[in-house]
């Protein structure tokens, strides 16, 4: 077939294409095919369903995550309230007991102190800040510094002024320490 014949056939094919679709009506308004309309509604509803389902899954995931975090740190407020009492019990145990009555009181205070300590441990609340431990600015608050020597390397704890506590991985109260520099 020559180029001229091919060109003429293409022109005829173009001319044969209808200018009006079968849906056209005499007054110019288009009649929508019910099947096309239903498919469009189905696609729209499927999209809405998938979006709503994804939103529900996101909400469930977010709720589960928030609930896990809330349960993990639920005892934090109570621990903050109890820590001053634990500190006072430690101070009371530092006092020497001279007579039998004072020794009995000290024994009672020791029992209460141990019970509170066990309760803190049972709730995943751990003490931080011991002498010789490496200084960690996330867990320790340096109050003073002392010069380091051969026996005491720099950035280690020289003295603990007040114990610190952490709940899981969150600091409840940083330890107040003296650090070797």
Layout of SSEs?
Elements: H1 3-16, H2 34-72, H3 76-94, H4 100-122, E1 125-128, E2 140-146, E3 157-162, E4 164-167, E5 170-173, E6 175-180
Parallel strand pairs: 2-6
Antiparallel strand pairs: 1-4, 3-6, 4-5
Helix pairs in contact: 3-4
**β content, as a range?**
15-25%
The low-confidence parts are: 13-25
Mean pLDDT: 86
How many angstroms does the end-to-end distance come to? 96 Å
Report the major sheet: 3 strands, antiparallel
What structural category arises from helix and sheet content?
A: alpha+beta
Q: Give the SSE order as H and E letters.
A: HHHHEEEEEE
DSSP, total strands: 6
Q: Number of helix segments?
A: 4
Write a short abstract of this structure.
The chain contains 4 helices and 6 strands; from the N terminus they run ααααββββββ.
General description of the model:
- The protein is α+β, with helices and mostly antiparallel strands.
- Helix content is 52%, strand content 17%.
- It has 4 helices and 6 strands, in the order H-H-H-H-E-E-E-E-E-E.
- Helix 3 packs antiparallel against helix 4.
- Mean pLDDT is 86; it is low at 13-25.
Tags for this model:
3-stranded antiparallel beta sheet; 181 residues; elongated; alpha+beta; 17% strand
């Amino acid at each position: 077939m020559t180029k001229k014949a091919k060109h003429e056939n293409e022109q005829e094919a173009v001319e044969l294409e209808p200018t009006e679709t079968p849906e056209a009506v005499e007054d110019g308004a288009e009649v929508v095919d019910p099947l096309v309309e239903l498919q469009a509604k189905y696609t729209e509803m499927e999209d809405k369903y998938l979006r709503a389902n994804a939103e529900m899954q996101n909400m469930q995931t977010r709720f589960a995550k928030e609930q896990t975090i809330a349960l993990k740190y639920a005892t934090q407020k109570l621990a903050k309230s109890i820590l001053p009492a634990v500190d006072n019990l430690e101070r009371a145990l530092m006092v020497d007991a001279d007579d039998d009555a004072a020794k009995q009181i000290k024994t009672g205070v020791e029992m209460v102190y141990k019970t509170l300590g066990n309760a803190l441990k049972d709730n995943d609340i751990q003490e931080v800040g011991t002498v010789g431990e490496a200084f960690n600015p996330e867990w320790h608050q340096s109050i003073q510094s002392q010069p380091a020597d051969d026996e005491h390397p720099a950035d280690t704890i020289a003295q603990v002024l007040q114990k610190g506590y952490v709940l899981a991985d969150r600091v409840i109260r940083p330890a107040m320490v003296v650090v070797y520099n």
